[in-house]
Amino acid sequence: MLTLIPGEATLEQLETLWRTDDAARLDPRTAPAIATSAGRIAAAAAGDAAVYGVNTGFGKLASVRIATDDTATLQRNLILSHCCGVGEPLSERTTRLMMALKLLSLGRGASGVRPEIVALIESMLAQGVTPVVPEQGSVGASGDLAPLAHMAAVMIGAGEAIFNDQRLPGAEALAAAGLSPVTLGAKEGLALINGTQFSTALALVGFFRAMTCLRTAIVTGAMSTDAIMGSTAPTHPEIHSLRGHRGQIDVAAAMRELLEGSAIRESHLEGDARVQDPYCIRCQPQVTGAALDLLRFAGQTLITEANAVTDNPLVLSDGTIVSGGNFHAEPVAFAADQIALAVAEIGAIAQRRVALMVDPALSFGLPPFLTPQPGLNSGLMIAEVTTAALMSENKHLAAPCSVDSTPTSANQEDHVSMAAHGARRLGLMTRNLSVILGVEAICSAQGIEFRAPLNTSAPLARVIEALRVHVATMGTDRYLAPDLERAQALVEDGTLVTAAGLEIAP
């Protein structure tokens, strides 16, 4: 059970929560602030002054006053009417991360929900009741309304949820877990759906996967360098300190460490006629390092957002209830676009390394398509083509989503962020990148083995050993699809990075 401190949650905590499917709860010290803000909302609901979302309608209907007796109906109607999500369900792990992010937001004590609301989310996480949340329907402004409404629907006994691997009506799932639905009070429905937690959860997952891919790309890039007997001179530390970018410096240092002690490298330190390697080898620190800097920046944006209060209106520290626009997910949209750019470029340069290794005109002595019997066997010819297809797809997907906007809700919400679009596409992009890097691992391991009796470095030898547990050396042609799937899995779960002993913190 992970205890969350609102305003202090870290990327490492949230990644652990997502990867381990652990439960989460708020630090008990949040209780007084939550109760105080709930009391302020209750007083406003009983008063005469119009307070948006408390005793008024929503959006374009904010001018419509709602009678005190209709408060519960107003909030229930809000949830049910906003359950308009479509498409495939969000994964259970990502949905649970979204729920944990909602806890962080409510736990700041500015949303005006009662402790019972927080307790039910905590109990759903603890008991494994996971709402079915469709992936499509949010434009990333006024909150991720439709997706979060599907989460909130289960809390009021509607919608659907997964419990014990069964998809059940929301009320049945709660009952099976020994839980009861809540009746929403003033503003509580609005607090649940008016936030960026859906977009932020998806963007965080994209970030976690992208960082794993980036670390793997440093490993597979070093393997490719050794496979083609590339020069390590471009990793000289002074080259990178003269430029000064932190990511570039870190990637070059990691590559030096990974290649240290390679007998392959030692064999051509003298007498090598090549003055310079192609950019995909020589410029790895510059390209992958720039991607690392971009991901670090995006990660900082996302952890700030994860700790933020993003519903509306907010109960401020002086007790006033004020309408604002924290629900607008522009920071998340920008972060998602930055992650997409980094993912596309990591894949683009990795694909060129794959192409280099299979091309006998460029691979410095490796056999065509890395097969011992070219002609009779095609070897890794079409595996390279697959990487080209996925690289190209990622280039298209990397087009920014944040520059798109369309007015909604009768022009009340006349500029939207499209953060959900930007974050959702990161899942496909990182899967594509994982395949590209998996193929690079297969090709580079094959290339290094062709350099025998010369050996690679100890860290890279461990990586090849880990790969060979799941993907055998290519001899004669065989059915390759399972090999690509297994190599992709080794990228996604971080096995290759672990084997190399590589540590680059976000």
TrEMBL record:
Pfam families to which the protein is assigned, alphabetical: Lyase_aromatic
Record GO terms (molecular function): histidine ammonia-lyase activity
2,3-didehydroalanine (Ser) PTM positions: 142
Top enzyme class: lyase
Gene3D superfamilies: Fumarase/aspartase (Central domain) (1.20.200.10), Fumarase/aspartase (N-terminal domain) (1.10.275.10)
UniProt similarity note: Belongs to the PAL/histidase family.
Leader sequence residues: none
Enzymatic reactions: L-histidine = trans-urocanate + NH4(+)
Modification after translation: Contains an active site 4-methylidene-imidazol-5-one (MIO), which is formed autocatalytically by cyclization and dehydration of residues Ala-Ser-Gly.
Protein name: Histidine ammonia-lyase
UniProt lineage: Bacteria, Pseudomonadati, Pseudomonadota, Alphaproteobacteria, Rhodobacterales
Subcellular location: Cytoplasm
Coarse class of the protein's main subcellular location: cytoplasm
Keyword DNA repair in record: no
EC nos: 4.3.1.3
Pathway assigned to this chain's UniProt record: Amino-acid degradation; L-histidine degradation into L-glutamate; N-formimidoyl-L-glutamate from L-histidine: step 1/3
Placement of covalent cross-link 5-imidazolinone (Ala-Gly): 141-143
Keyword terms: Cytoplasm, Histidine metabolism, Lyase
